[in-house]
Structures are given as C-alpha cells and as structure tokens.
Fold each of these.
Amino acid sequence: MRHPDERQIALYAGGEAGWGERFWMGRHVANCPECRRLADGIRRDRQAIREEAAELPQGLNWDRLAAEMTANIHVGLEAGECVGGRQRRVVRVTWRPALAAAGLAALLVGGFYLNVPADQRSSLGRGVVQLWDRLDGQSTMHAGISLESTRNGIQVSENGAAMTMMNPSSEPAVVVVNTRGSLRARYVDDDTGQVTITNVYAQ
Amino acid sequence: MAAVIAPAMLWAQADVRGSLKIDFPKDSPVSVISSDWGQSRPEVRGGAMVLDLHTQLSLRNSGERRIRGVTLMVLAQAVTPGGKASVTVPSLDVGPGETFPVRIDLRLLRPIQGGNSAVQVVLDGVLFDDLSFYGPNRLESRRAMMVWELEAQRDRRHFKQVLEQAGTEGLQKEILASVARIGDRSQFGMQMVRAGSGRATTYEPERDVQFAFVQFPDSPIEPVSGMARVSGSEAREPRIQVKNRSTKPVRYFELGWIVEDEQGRRFLAGSMPAELNLGPGQKTQVVQDTGLRFPERTGIKNMTGFVNSVEYADGRFWIPSRAEMAVGPLQSALAPSAEEQRLTQIYRKKGLKALVEELKKF
C-alpha cells in the first residue's frame, strides 16, 4: 500500500486538501492506522496552538497597552509628515489617442467654420486675428474699418455703418492722415472762435 | 417699408436726447454744467437711419490750475464696433471756476434695423498751464496737446515780438500774411489705406519714391533716407531711416509728410509717428504698414519729409522754430498752427485791437 507523505496528511488534517485529494486521503486514512494516528496527532497540535493563541498573557496591563498604542500612532503620524505628500501617479500620455482627439477637434472646428455664413465667417476671422494680435502685443487696425475725409467731415465706417465727426465751420478743415491709424481734422469754430481738432481712429 | 420706417423714426426721435451719455470721472478737474442739443435730429435715407447729433457742452474748470486743452473721447460702439473718435480743444486759457464750451457735431449712419445709436463721451485728458496732465490718456492726448501747447507758446511769443518791434502795423502785416497762407492752402479729400488692402488702380505701375527731407540744424532726430510705394494717387508703406544726433535718448518722434501733385501743389498730407527707444548716435528704420490715398487723377509726383516733434526719454519735447518752418517747401505746404489759426480768427472777427488784447493776456 502506498502511503501519502506528511505534507499531504497535514493538508488533509487541516481541511486544506483539494476535493479529489480529500476523497482519496479519507479512504486511505480510514484503512491505515499509521496514517490515521499521524493525522490525529496533527489535528491535536493545531487545536492546542489555536487554544494557546486565544488565551491572554498573564498579568496583562490594559492601560499600559492603550498608552503604548496611542504613542505609536502619534509617532507614525509625525514620521509621515516628515516624509511629505503622497507622490502623484504619473499618467503616461500615448500619442495615438492624442492625435485622434486633435484630428476630431480639427474636423469639428472646420465643419463649424464652413457652415457659418460668409459674412459672419469673415467677422469671426477678423475677431480671431484681432485677438491674436492683442495677445501678440501688436496694435493693428481693424481690417473692416475705413477712414476717410468727406465734404462733411472725417468719417470712420464699417459694414455700412458710419460715424462722422462733422466740420461745422464755414471754411474747410485741415485734414491729415496719421499713419498709425487715424485721421485728423482741424478747424476754427465760427461761433466760439475756438480751434477744434477732431480725430477718427481705426484701432 | 412704411411699417418699418415709422416706428424707427418715432423711436429715434425719442432716443436723440438719450443717445449721448457723458461720463467724467468723479475726481475730474472738469465738470459738465449743461448740454444744449440744438438741432439734433434723426432722418431716414433709403434703408439707413441718419442721426445728426449737435451738442454744445458747457464745462467748468473745477480744479485749481488754468486749463490749456481738453480732449474728449467719443465712442459709438454699437454703430462702428472697432472705431472711435475724439474732440480736442487746444489753445484754451480757462481759469479756476470759469466755464468754456466744447461742441460735438457728429453724424451716425446705420441700417434701420441695426440696433441703437448710443454715443458715450468720456474725458481722455486735460492739460494745464504748468504742462501737467490729468486723464486716462487712452488716445495719447497728453503728447498731442503738449505739442500743440508748445506751438501755441512759440507762436504767441513770435507775434508779441512782432508787436514790440514793429508795432500794430507790423502785427497787422504779419497776421494778413497768415490769412493769405490759410486761403492759398490746398486741401484734398483723403483716405487712409493699409497694407494688403486693394490698390486704387491696377493699371498704374507701382514704384518706390524717395523722400526729400528738410533738415533742421537743431533737431535731435535727423531723417537719413526714406521711401514709400507710390501708385497713381496712392502712397503707402513709408520706410524712414533716422538717426538720433542729440546727447539724450529719444522715445518718440513724428515726421510730417508733404505731398506734391503733378500740378505742383504741395500740402501736408500725413504724419508718421514712431515710438522707439533710440540712444544718442543710434540709427533705426521706421516702417509703417499704412498709407494715404487721394481722389483719382491726383497723381503723386514728389514727397518731402520733416521732423515735426520729438519727445526725449525724460519727457521733454522739441519742436521746430518758426524760422525753420518758413523755408523751402514747408512755407507753402504747411497750414498755420492751431494757435496762429485762432489768433487769425480773432483778427478777422474782432479786429486788430482785440488781437493785441488777446496777446497781452499771456
């Protein structure tokens, strides 16, 4: 008769053997007194160890134990503060999803831009250019604005709307273009006798 | 159509007085006493609404210094979103507590259904007799009013010298010469153009035209060379090389731009301001992406440049003397200064005696 080794008997005695092994070992131990004695011995030892571990040590001082545990918790907290904050987990960005997201965004923006009516599109474009120039620190003229002198005065106009600084004087005004984006007119007011200088700006 | 126009007219008539909002800072040395609306009125023209606003503001000097100039900024953002305007009255002499008028005459044109026509008037700056300044200065009005005030001081000094040396007859002769200059001066319609905008003509070849410069011996800035692209009645993208020949750094200068047409008529058409930081002896090139356009068939033949004003880094200014301005092409091309124009008007309206009294005030 082939006997199982001690490891198999210990697993069987502790109830930790697999289903098939437990069946086979059960039959063997029932018919083999030597192996049954070994298995019983192992069971008794386990029971004795379990009972001993369950008992409290002699003369245990609960107050002292509580004080030691509190002190250990404080020491642990202070040690944690010395170590510093928890390190953030670095998330690795892979290029393929990023490129796919960028492509999708470009497609959506392009589709939106192409579906906007032409006049609103040009207005949007001007706005973007202005914003870009402002961020870039440049002061450029508004692309849609026109400055000109007319027989009534000097005028700033845009998209069919206009503001004209009139010349109420009986004599023509002195008009000068400022190359930084403005138009200036100077005249003497007939009523007040004051020199009046008007400007229209495109920036 | 009538259903659209009638309510728009009614609304606009009710809105004329509410169209102008005057907004001065609480600590402003100038306060608004009253505003007279005169003949402000709305008018429908085709598919557009025209709103004429004529107001005379009565302002009081509520500070303690004498006022030499005031600039008001005019904003009509609902009509021209990117555009703004200003009204400046230089050559003032307003004492503390005194009042003075400022007229604002403007016309707004917009589509009938184009929203409201609200106009905002805000104070941009006040220049005092000690050349100190108050205001947000969003339009760089401090610099402009400072130059006009220095020109005014220069010209008043000149006429007072004439009065002292040649008496009232001499003064009259001088002022009549000024009246003649104003009358002889040519003025064309003008438009400002920018780089990249369409050219006025496609059949006129574009060419580079060199500037001729009038040099002033005591000017801190010396124009060395310059050119602009000229095509027919249009000149654009001026490029000027200048040198700081003074012993102090310069932070701003302005060049006058005189144009001579094919009939030989000369006039001051433009000014090229430049902000920079130019140390003594240094050279730099100033390039601007704008230009000017005249009516068709006003061919540009020659161009002349001269230094109109300079601001040193320490805030002091230089302007040319009257003697320097009275030579070469400048004499026929330049209009008299704002102050000379005002003094001339006093002579024309009130006579020689009133002019002498005016000069004695300063």
Amino acid sequence: MVGIVSYGAYVPVYRLSRAEISRAWSKQAISGEKAVAYYDEDSLTMAVAAARSCVVEIDSKSIGGLYFASVTSPYREKQAAVTIATVLDMSLEAYTVDICNSLRAGTSAMRIAMDAISNDSTDNILVSAADCRLGMPNSDAEMSFGDGAAAFLIGKTNVVAEIEGVYGISNELLDVWRSDKDAFVRSWESRFVYSEGYTRIVTQAVSTAMKRYNLTPKDFAKVVLYTPDSRQLGTVARKLGFDLATQVQDTLYPKIGNTGTAQPLLALIAALEDAKAGDRILLASYGDGCDVFVLRVTKEIEKLRSKRGVKGQLEAKLMTTYNRYLRWRELIEVEPPAVPPMEQPSPVALWRDTHGGLTLHGVKCKRCGTIQYPVQRVCGVCRAKDEFDDYMFADKVGKLVTFSHDSLGNLIDPPNTVAVVDFPEGGRITFDMTSRDPSEVKIGMSVAMVFRKIRYVGGFYDYWWKCCPVRG
Amino acid sequence: MKGIRDKAAIIGMGCSKFGENWDRSAADMIIDAAYEAYEDAGVGSGDIQAAWFGTYDSMSGLSGQALAEPLKLDYIPITRVENMCATGSDALRNACYGVASGACDIALALGVEKLKDSGYTGLPDFEWQRRRGGTYRDRSYSAPSHFAMMATKYFEKYGLTPDEGKRILAQIAVKNHHNGSLSPKAHFQREVTIEQVLQAPIIAWPLGLYDCCGVSDGAAAAIVTRADLAKNFRADPIYIKALQVSVGGGQGHMNPAFDWTHVEENVRAGKAAYAEAGITNPRKEISIAEVHDCFTITELVIMEDLQFSLRGKAPEDIESGFFSLKGGLPVNSDGGLKCFGHPIGASGLRMMYEIYKQLQGKAGPRQVKNPRLGLTHNLGGTPASASVSVIIAGNEKS
C-alpha cells in the first residue's frame, strides 16, 4: 500500500515574538512566537532543508520525482522543483513538478504522488512544501504567519503510515488570496473567511470523508487539521466531534505560526513523532477546498521516529527583533552602505558550476587522494591534470579553523561571520556562517552545510551554501 | 640563475602627496610624481626610453596610454602592470629587468591610484575577490575580514586573549602613527594612543578602525638605469639587490595544511630575495624595512615571515620597540600604509621612495643611522593566497 516512507521538517531558527510586534504598533500584547526565515532563506532553500532531512539515509538517485509545493515560490516562471532536485543530486529522469498557488498544495502534492505511485509511474516521490508568506505590517496576517517547510517521501515499501483513503472537494471563494501584483496576502473580513470558508468547508469535507470510509471520530487516534490561527481549530473540532484535548494535533501555531502549505505536513510530522503502530490518523488541509487523508501508522514507524522530526527544532531558537524582520523581508528601505553594488552572476558560469555549486561537489585526486573544493582540473598537491573523482561535501560536518565577524560590506544583517571550515576526510572551504549568534562562534566548533540564497541581482536568485552551527 | 643583484640602479624618484586628493586627478598625480623623479635624476621626459605603469583599478588608468597621455611620452613602449597590492613594486621589477637586459638604458616605473572619486568607504571593487568564475557562489568578502581571520588564529595559536592580542596590535598602530606625524607627504600625520586604538569601533572582529589602513589617492615614480651607468647621473644611486615576487594559487584557501598564522608567499619571496641579495641574517643585515601594513596583524606576521623575528616572537619585539624608529630594525619609518596611505598601484614605489631617501641620508626627522640595506614588501590578496613582492636595495655595490 502506498504511504509515507520518511519525513523531514525544517523550521528556521529565528523567532519573532508577537508581543514584540504588538509593541511596535502600540497594541495589546499577543502571545506566542512566529518562525522567521533569515534574510538568506526563501521557500526554495527551506524546501531543500526539509527534503535533505527527509532523505538523509536514502540514495537520492533512487527517488523517482520531486514535487515542490508553495504559495511563495521565488519564481513565477522557472521551476523550483528542478533546482531542489539538482541540489539533492537526484537523477535527471526524476519527474520534477511545482504544485503552487493554493494553501492545500502540500497535501495536493501528496495525493498526486500517491496516484502516480499507485499507477506504477514510479516507485517513490519526494514531496517538499515550504512557505514564507508576508502579511502587511500591522496586520493580523503578519501576526499569524510563520515560515517553515516539511517533506515526505511517498512510496510503497517500508511505509510508516499507509494512505488508506483520500477525499477532497474544491471550493471557489475569495477568502484568502494573493494576486500576481501583490507582495502581501489579502483576505476578506474574517467572519466571512471563517464561517463560509474554513469552518464550513473543512467540516463538510471531513464529515463526508468519514461517512465514505465508514469511520467515526473515535476511530482516530490523532486528527491533524490545518488552522489559520489558534482559535478556529477548536470550532471545527467541536463541530466534527473530535476531542480537542486528546485527539486534535497541536499545529504548532503558538510556537511558529501558520506556515502555509507546510503547516498540515509539519503538524502531521509532529503527530507521527508520537504515534504508535495501528494508530489511525486523519489529515485535512484547507485552501480553495479541502484535501482529506485517512492514514494508518505501521510498525515501521519505530525505525524512523527517533531520527528526525519537528519537535527538536522548536527548542533551538534565536530571538530576533521586529526591525531586523522588516529588514530581512525587505519591507523597509535602508541607506545602502558606501560599497560597490553587487554584480550580476553569469547564467553561463552558473550552468558550468551546477554540479560544484548546487550539489556542493568537489573533487578527489585519483593520483594522490587529495580532496579539494572547488572542482579543479589540476591537482593542487601533485599537479595531476583531469584525474579526479567526484567528492560530495554537502553531507559532511566540518570544523571551524578560524573566523571573523565583519561589519564592512554589502551586509543585510551585520556583522557577517566569515568562517574557514576543514573537513574530516580532507578539503577546506571558506563560507559565511549563517543562522548563528556571533557570541557562540568558537574555533573548533562543528558546523553543518546549509543551502541558502546568496544574492538577487539581474532578476534572478543565485544560491550556494553556507555553514551553520550543528544544533541538536 | 644569477639574479639581479647590482645590475640595476635607481637614479631618481618622486612621490606625490598621498591622501584625499580631491583636487587632483590620476593624471595630475602622475605628473607630480614623474616630474619630481625627472628633476631628481637630472633627466627630461624625452630621455625615458620605456615605461612600466602600475594601477590596480582600471579607473586609475587602463593600458600604457594612461601614462603616455598626461606625460606626453614620445611613442615609447609602455606596459601596464597589475599584481594587486604588489603592482607598484612589480612595475619597478619589470623596469629594472628592462634596463638590466640592455633592452633600454633609462626606464620609468610609475604607480598611481585614484580611489577617492568612487564615493566608497573601502576598496573600489570587492567583487573581484568573489568572482568565482562569474558565479559569485562564494562567501561575503572584505579585505579586513580575511586578515582578521589571521588575527583570530594567531591569538589562539600563541595563547593570547583577544584583549592581549589587540593590545599588541595597537602598538603597531601607535608606532606607525608616530612615524606618519614626521612625514609631510603622508595622508595621516597625527599621533594616536593605545587607548584610542583599543576604543575604536570594530571593523572586522578583532580588528578595529585603527588596525586598518584607509583609502588614499597618490602616485610614486622611479627612474632606473643599468648599474654601470648609474654614476653618470648621480653620485649616490641606489642599487637593486633583489627583486622577488611570489604568487599564490589559492593553496591556503583549499588546503587544510595552511595554518592561517603566516603568509607562505611572504616566506618564499623573502627567502628568494635574501638569497639573491646574499643576505644570511636579515634581522641584522636589513637596516630598514617598509612592509605591507594593510592591517596591524599583517605587519606583525610579516616580521616573522621575513625572519625579522622568530616564529611566535614578533609580539616581544613589538613590545620592546625593536621595530620603532629608534629601534634595531625600523619598520615603516614613514608611517606605512596605515598613515602614509595605500593608493594600491603606487604603494610599492612609495615604499621604495622612503628607502631611497633613507639610504641617501635625506629622510630628515625620520632619518635612521647609517642605513646600508633597505627592504620593501607588498602583499596583495589574503593571507591564504597572495601576490607578494620583496625588493632589497642598498647604497653600495657589493
């Protein structure tokens, strides 16, 4: 039976407290925090992070497809899924698709993946959903939105949660939307949005699904429902007859906010982290309709559970300020530093550098065994020419050799930490260190490789890698 | 390989005022430096048979034409030289090879940089450092941050707390500011105290404002001839003893064997220069040195790389005042890059200008006693990969 084989979650390390936003606008403090992507993160980089976590023990060449789900893809015309698949070093024949523009795109991607595998189009598909939505400053949306990503490998062997049944309805409604002309999400009056949108549709879809599969609320150990904020969940749960305290999965809203297409998937991961073999789980998303899944946890869950998840990422956090958030999201214009403007990369040079730059491959000299980055044609030690094997750096943990915190330059969040990193089997690369507190940086610390946005010049995004303190 | 020792000599030098020369274009400064050199050598522009023109940034001048135009040189061969911060010294090296070979008898080496038209607070173009084949898939780049990484590692290796390390670096800044106060052509001519240096804002941790050289305009020039012709021009020519350049290939950035507490190119260029000049004890035999203090940490490490101090012992020599104007081996007697300024293409020649004047006994309040051999050193790039020049000159033929 087709189902979830593996999962991976990614929550950015930075948090902005809602009280901090309230203070900025002289309003009564609201509780909780939202997860905030760093200035060098976007939906694509977060989807990469979740996907890497999901398939860390799986041969990337064995994955049959990559579906990217988001309402905040960095491009309107240029596929993000192919970039993610390239970073993961997947096969050229892996089928890449972007499934976008709806808050239920994450679950839609799961359903389409399930259909493809059920049809023997392929054996497995990696689904990664990520969002980085913007609410207008001083809005409810700004308060409630959070950034994050979640990935599932959908397949048919070693399944940890079987998909027993699916159901869905579509619904045409202007409740929450963002046109091609807008940076900010818009919505109509919340009374309308909730009563005719979210509450009505989710209640209708879930109750129909249960009838169709001859199931009642007590058949479910856990119920994972998308929610726009903390209050609406209770309304829907009560209408459907689910127990809020024991059955309904905490969507993590108080700790990270509403993560858009990633939300139902992240909440499902949280549920799977506590699930036992035999548990039946209901999953429902919302956006232009409702996708419903009935899942059954298998005993394979024991092998997977301890290895990754979302809960561990909730505790390792760095607080940020409202000013920095506005700067990272480019919502305020600041005086540029008196340094030369950034230059536009050459797409030709980027294309030549695809393997070295996007997958973080270096080389290992066949003659003397020296490991080097970037890709070389002449060995720096023995001068052998064109005698190299590929060597992958992305999955290695490095050690910090030396560093500086730099206040000079075209910096969005000064100081920037420049870091020289040595790798255990050989090789040395100098990276920016990201998502860190400068005071925690020490010679000898362990760092992992993370995929981030380097610059946006000439109308396109240039991505590469940075190092980051190993957390958890 | 026989080397260049005593095959070429400098017979005239000029140096413009260095600083924020708002009222002087690159062409203006070229004329200032060249005409002082002509007068010093007793030649006219028509006597120049070949020229080597050093600029780092193309906005200071591109191709030999940018030298011919202001000076109205007469259709002679002119080559533009660029080797990052070693540009000026490399122009001198090429000019000396030209006359030593007999291909020409009188050559001009001139370096200039016009940095202050840009409006930038730092170097004109950080991006050349980041331009990994036009992809920019690289870390953020600033010159201070890369030398700061050498300071971080040096402090760790030799057991210095950041405070202890910064205090040692501060003494280098204080020394150079004192020397700058005695240099009428220098950009900065005021003294500073250790406390002022330590309180200054951080530029790239652990380096603060006074640990970093500033951005300046300037030009400097040398007129050279074959050594056996030198006395036709003046009684006190300065003879070239060594012209060495060592260029790195990124080894330090890619190879974990690099320790980030020395600069390999410094060591290699220094050894080659000492061999070429017949020097076996640099600390004793070098009378005076102008070295590339782009950052205070750079000067500290150069002392060890050039064998003026033993490895790890430069802090002791700095604390004892060994490198001060009245010390055993005065370093940067004219204020160095820190105070004289660092118009990139000109710096190597400005360093030789000070050595030249010192060796001729014309350094006024900065004069050191009876100097015999002077050394200039430049470093362009990062501690992990650099273009380094070491030139040694003396006032006697060996």
